[in-house]
Amino acid sequence: MYTIIAGTNRAESNSLQIGKIYSSVLLSKGIQSSVFSLEGLDLNSRSASMIAFENEVLIPCSKFIFVLPEYNGSYPGLFKSLIDLSDIKRCWPGKKALLVGVATGRGGNIRGLDHVTGVLNYIKVMVHPNKLPLSAVDKIMSADGEINDLRTTASIDEQVTEFINC
Q1: CA distance 78 to 135
Q2: How far is CA 18 from CA 60, 88, 158, in A?
Q3: What is the DSSP letter of 98?
Q4: CA gap 111, 50 in Å, rounded
Q5: pLDDT tens for the 166 residues of the chain, in order
Q6: Superfamily of domain 2-165
Q7: First to last CA, the chain
């Protein structure tokens, strides 16, 4: 089971749009996935919504795609709260993750992807080595949420194919 999580709670985020693109790429390869945003999820404590998300999404999943926007040179604290509040031993060990960085700047959140890799490795999640930093996302994505850059779409397709085969 593939689960795509846009690692922010911002409404209509670029991360969520990119997550939907990854879902379409998976579907074109015959693989179903679910896309989730952290919008509306109470991550201030082990709330009822957090526990439900854990039981319905995190625990059953075997492969994650995390789409993480750049927040102050790293990844969102809200995403870290998701990890910290989860039942680590039930949610994460032995699972695989594909990382995608999203930024309007030129770095594509590569630093944040490195930061979260350390955290995920610590909780025994195997991170796929091909991490894709998407730079200038506001310029490569059209108003209708599609990528209009051929190199980027080729990179996404290659990354997804590698992840499916690992």
Answers
A1: 21
A2: 23, 27, 15
A3: E
A4: 27
A5: 899 999 999 988 999 999 999 999 999 999 999 999 999 999 999 999 999 999 999 999 999 999 999 999 999 999 999 999 999 999 999 999 999 999 998 899 999 999 999 999 999 999 999 999 999 999 999 988 899 999 999 999 999 999 999 8
A6: Flavodoxin domain (3.40.50.360)
A7: 14
